[in-house]
Fold this sequence. Notes:
single chain; transmembrane helix; SCO1/SenC; transmembrane
Amino acid sequence: xxxxxxxxxxxxxxxxxxxxxxxxxxxxxxxxxxxxxxxxxxxxxxxxxxxxxxxxxxxxxxxxxxxxxxxxxxxxxxxxxxxxxxxxxxxxxxxxxxxxxxxxxxxxxxxxxxxxxxxxxxxxxxxxxxxxxxxxxxxxxxxxxxxxxxxxxxxxxxxxxxxxxxxxxxxxxxxxxxxxxxxxxxxxxxxxxxxxxxxxxxxxxxxxxxxxxxxxxxxxxxxxxxxxxxxxxxxxxxxxxxxxxxxxxxxxxxxxxxxxxxxxxxxxxxxxxx
Length: 274
């Protein structure tokens, strides 16, 4: 065979095969899988062919696999950031607090100046408590449950500290319901627990400002008629003679645990002073 004819038939044969090769590179719009046909004899289905699955469906699944995980990760990161931000601003109970000194720079600042009225209707401020250890509690005389319990714990703790350990702590009760807790009402209420408890009230704005300084949460909850309750955090604060908050105690402390922790802080303060 002449060489020219051989080249011609060879080229013609390659071009004839090329259309059969093209579908391999052209994405098919239908993908086959196993199918079933009804058997007339036993009623079971036998695999006969390949059912069709649309490429669009498979493509949408692939798109979701790439897009949904990053969206979930992003949402999870946002939730984690918000939780971390709240944790940073939260007050940890039973720990030390920063009041401006460099050795507690990592803790949140708490406490500040205030001007209120005592049960004798006399104006007092934070300067009058300098030189005393103070156990400060925010409550109200109409509290039905936690309030009286906390005042009782406070009274028992300071009484035991003074009688058994010769440690004097001045208990101070600040009302968060000044609209109902006037000086006379506050005096009569605290007398039932311990006459040594100093009661403080005053204008709503002044009480609210002090509560904000000490990061005390409270909210009025309306009841039937004109009655209402006050939700609050029920925290106690131990304040040193320089009016700096050194500890915060929540409702989980009973009187024995409270006096133990107060005694520990006061003894530590004496050792550091020496």
